[in-house]
């Protein structure tokens, strides 16, 4: 009688060890990777571990993070906003145009891109919710349209201080210092973009975790039919998600315009993929297994730390996409493996 | 007397009249059984009552005054709640138990939520339904029985006064069913009225106060449980009295088709041993969670086992279901719509899929030969469909099941694994499935019949094995088997006896 009992006990003890390590890895794997990366780069380069470098890293990811917050919210409702890059470009040139071409005040240069961005959000919502195109295809089409719009508006040229106009005169306005402060200023030697990013992450986290509309976004995305039958106005919440997504994309575009001090065309396009990657890496942070804004932040941090470290080690920029792709595979493989088990 | 009355409800979809003037009265503190074969209109009626569909005509009155149930929200406001048959359609799998139970707080509570309050509230309502699980558990990690009770707890959290239970016991074990019934009985005493949809007569007579039977969109019987009986109810459901088969003809021969010797089933972690003979129907009884599906999947190579099986006396080890099919095995899975048929494919293609190689010449599929073979089997199986090209997902449950079986008949294997083949199909279709199985046996095929519907075993099985916790704990010939003996083994009663002695 005692023998089978022993046998059973052995069987039990083996998985219990597994049961402890695996959940730990699923929960903290991404953070462990970030810490390991920091340690490795610090050993390889003595300038890596400095306040200056870390504020550089955070500043470099701030715009991506803002954009990625938008992507995250669209993912939460079960959608996917691919138009955020174009929307950011549109915001960049509209704020620059307001300042440089039309001599407007900073406040106008902030409100116009946000308003235009919300229009893009409405268009996305209309196509995905009313016309019921698949989210990815609807926002892909809108991505092209918005990209074309902002290029048509600028005739393909970037907008900068003292730029010559067609009439032979120079542009009447300039980037105002108060506008430039958003992207270039510092408060207690913390760069403004970093402050904006952290405030946005914390505010959106609180919104998603503790507010009714925030939770309803998760309910809608988690099971749309169940949400509908519980009386959740799912269409309205999907619309809110697309509006928020475009709002954060526009905010990213404004910070970008202020940071580089020009209304550079197509500046937002390369941000899209990094934003999407950050949002998906974020799934794996703290074992959330669903889109979440804190995870998205750490996803962006991971990308930022790696790119910064690789640049310091003189790895050419064109090779860095290989690394980004590999991290994304790692994070997703981790998440799906965790889901299956 | 705040009873809920439906009067003369009509509803048609296109040209099809699904409800032809149905009336139903649900009183507080009453469990009202709603019965009917598939297609009788039960689901449609309940969807109208829960605000999912709108009625064409008729009235719904509550407390004597007419009410409008135009949306799910209206139904909730009036205190009408539905606990759906498949809880996954009503719960959010990626969120926690607490969040799902207190979902209503998100619709009418304060703007900012307190997680502590929500957890506390969820715990209270879970207690009412006798469920003690962590409120932080994700729904995706809960068992089906837990999900059902979670849905019931959620209905209570919304202060429902009328609760519709759609086949709540279909996937529950006996213990879980008993627990659910005691919860229903205690809620009934608090004045909650229930509509209880079920196909299982014994439990209806045990639990319900009143029975209404629907047939073809009409209410054909409504009576207190005490003044009717099973025969009368069945008669109204099918329109004619079914005569239960008393005599059993066995076709069992001596040749062994399939033999498992200490065959390891990875998902249950247990080993099973049995023999299946030519022309034999072996019933494998087990309650939910006994490991029926897991065992069937391992035998079919859907979950890989390190052990081999003896098929026609030759040792074989599966590396994929393809190997099993090549050796004459066929598997009719429990999850019909997910695994048995491809809902978006035509009926014709569904029947032909396992045999595509048969219909291929020079690398191309011959649609004319598929059409011919499909039409022939649709007729043989009595599948009711407008044409061979109708998407399989649009067929009724019983016809879908016939398609899921038919595809293997077209293939022509000789060992059949049936996993809960009568789940969610009506009595008429059940009879068809039974007679199909008997025909297969008479042709010398071997059948493993996995089921939790113990009474079905007496209809089809030559021999009965009982599965408990993944192990075969008992074996009975048809003559030896009694309902009590099987139940004893299936609930693990033998284990208790063995330990105490």
TrEMBL record, chain A:
Membrane topology classification: Multi-pass membrane protein
InterPro entries: ABC_transp_permease (IPR001851)
Keyword NAD on entry: no
Keywords: Cell membrane, Membrane, Transmembrane, Transmembrane helix
Subcellular location: Cell membrane
Superkingdom classification of source: Bacteria
Pfam family, one: BPD_transp_2
A GO molecular-function descriptor: transmembrane transporter activity
Principal cellular location given in the protein's record: membrane
Cellular component terms per the entry's GO annotation: plasma membrane
Transmembrane segments: 21-45, 57-77, 108-129, 136-153, 187-208, 240-261, 267-286, 293-311, 317-338
Protein name: Sugar ABC transporter permease
Source organism: Fictibacillus aquaticus
């Amino acid at each position: 009688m005692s023998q089978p009992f022993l046998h059973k006990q052995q069987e039990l003890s083996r998985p219990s060890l597994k049961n402890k390590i695996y959940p730990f890895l699923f929960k903290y794997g991404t953070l462990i990777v970030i810490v390991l990366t920091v340690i490795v780069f610090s050993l390889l380069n003595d300038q890596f571990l400095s306040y200056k470098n870390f504020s550089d890293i955070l500043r470099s990811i701030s715009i991506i993070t803002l954009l990625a917050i938008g992507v995250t919210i669209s993912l939460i409702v079960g959608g996917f906003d691919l138009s955020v890059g174009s929307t950011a470009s549109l915001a960049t040139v509209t704020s620059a145009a307001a300042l440089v071409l039309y001599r407007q005040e900073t406040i106008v240069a902030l409100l116009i891109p946000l308003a235009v961005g919300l229009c893009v959000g409405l268009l996305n919502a209309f196509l995905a919710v009313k016309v019921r195109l698949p989210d990815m295809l609807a926002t892909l089409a809108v991505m092209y349209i918005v990209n074309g719009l902002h290029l048509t508006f600028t005739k393909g040229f970037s907008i900068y201080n003292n730029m010559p106009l067609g009439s032979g005169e120079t542009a009447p306005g300039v980037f105002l210092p108060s506008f430039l402060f958003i992207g270039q200023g510092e408060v207690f030697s913390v760069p403004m973009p970093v402050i904006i990013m952290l405030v946005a992450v914390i505010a959106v986290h609180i919104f998603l975790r503790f507010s009714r509309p925030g939770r309803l976004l998760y309910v809608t995305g988690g099971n749309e039919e169940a949400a509908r039958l519980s009386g959740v106005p799912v269409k309205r919440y999907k619309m809110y998600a697309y509006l928020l997504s475009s709002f954060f994309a526009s905010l990213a575009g404004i910070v970008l315009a202020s940071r580089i001090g020009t209304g550079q065309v197509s500046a937002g396009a390369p941000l899209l993929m990094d934003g999407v990657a950050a949002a998906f890496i974020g799934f794996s942070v703290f074992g959330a297994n669903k889109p979440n804004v804190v995870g998205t932040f750490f996803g962006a941090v991971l990308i930022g730390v790696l790119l910064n470290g690789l640049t310091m080690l003189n790895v050419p920029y064109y090779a860095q996409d290989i690394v980004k792709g590999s991290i994304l595979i790692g994070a997703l493989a981790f998440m799906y493996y965790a889901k299956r088990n | 007397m705040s009873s809920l009355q439906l009067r003369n409800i009509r509803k048609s979809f296109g040209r099809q009249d699904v409800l032809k003037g149905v009336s139903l009265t649900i009183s507080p503190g009453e469990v009202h059984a709603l019965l009917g074969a598939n297609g009788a209109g039960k689901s449609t009626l309940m969807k109208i009552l829960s605000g999912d569909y709108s009625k064409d005509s008729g009235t719904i009155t509550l407390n004597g005054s007419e009410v409008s149930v135009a949306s799910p929200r209206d139904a909730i406001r009036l205190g009408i709640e539905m606990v759906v048959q498949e809880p996954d359609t009503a719960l959010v799998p990626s969120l926690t138990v607490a969040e799902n139970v207190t979902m209503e707080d998100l619709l009418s509570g304060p703007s900012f939520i307190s997680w502590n309050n929500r957890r506390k509230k969820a715990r209270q309502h879970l207690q009412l339904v006798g469920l003690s699980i962590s409120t932080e558990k994700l729904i995706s990690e809960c068992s089906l029985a837990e999900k059902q009770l979670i849905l019931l707890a959620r209905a209570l959290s919304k202060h429902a006064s009328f609760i519709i239970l759609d086949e709540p016991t279909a996937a529950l074990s006996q213990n879980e069913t008993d627990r659910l019934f005691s919860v229903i009985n205690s809620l009934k005493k608090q004045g909650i009225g229930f509509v209880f949809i079920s196909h299982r007569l014994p439990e209806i007579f045990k639990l319900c106060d009143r029975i209404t039977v629907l047939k073809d969109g009409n209410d054909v019987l409504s009576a207190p449980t005490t003044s009717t009986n099973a025969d009368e109810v069945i008669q109204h459901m099918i329109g004619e009295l079914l005569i239960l088969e008393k005599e059993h003809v066995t076709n069992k021969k001596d040749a062994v088709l399939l033999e498992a010797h200490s065959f390891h089933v990875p998902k249950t972690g247990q080993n099973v041993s049995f023999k299946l003979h030519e022309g034999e129907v072996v019933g494998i009884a087990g309650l939910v969670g006994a490991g029926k599906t897991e065992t069937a999947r391992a035998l079919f190579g859907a979950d890989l086992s390190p052990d081999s099986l003896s098929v026609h006396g030759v040792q074989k080890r599966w590396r994929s279901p393809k190997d099993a099919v090549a050796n004459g095995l066929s598997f009719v899975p429990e999850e019909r719509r997910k695994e048995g048929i491809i809902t978006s494919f035509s009926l014709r293609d569904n029947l032909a899929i396992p045999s595509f190689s048969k219909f291929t010449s020079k690398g191309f599929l011959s649609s004319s030969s598929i059409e011919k073979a499909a039409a022939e089997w649709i007729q043989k199986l009595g599948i009711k469909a407008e044409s061979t090209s109708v998407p399989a997902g649009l067929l009724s449950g019983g016809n879908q099941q016939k398609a899921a079986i038919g595809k293997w008949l077209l293939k022509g294997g000789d060992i059949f694994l049936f996993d809960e083949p009568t789940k969610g199909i009506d009595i008429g279709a059940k009879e068809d499935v039974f007679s199909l199985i008997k025909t297969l046996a008479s042709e010398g095929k071997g059948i493993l019949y996995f089921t939790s519907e113990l009474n079905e075993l007496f209809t089809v099985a030559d021999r009965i094995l009982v599965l408990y916790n993944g192990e075969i704990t008992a074996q009975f010939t048809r003559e030896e088997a009694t309902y009590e003996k099987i139940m004893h083994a299936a609930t693990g009663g033998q284990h208790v006896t063995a330990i105490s002695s």
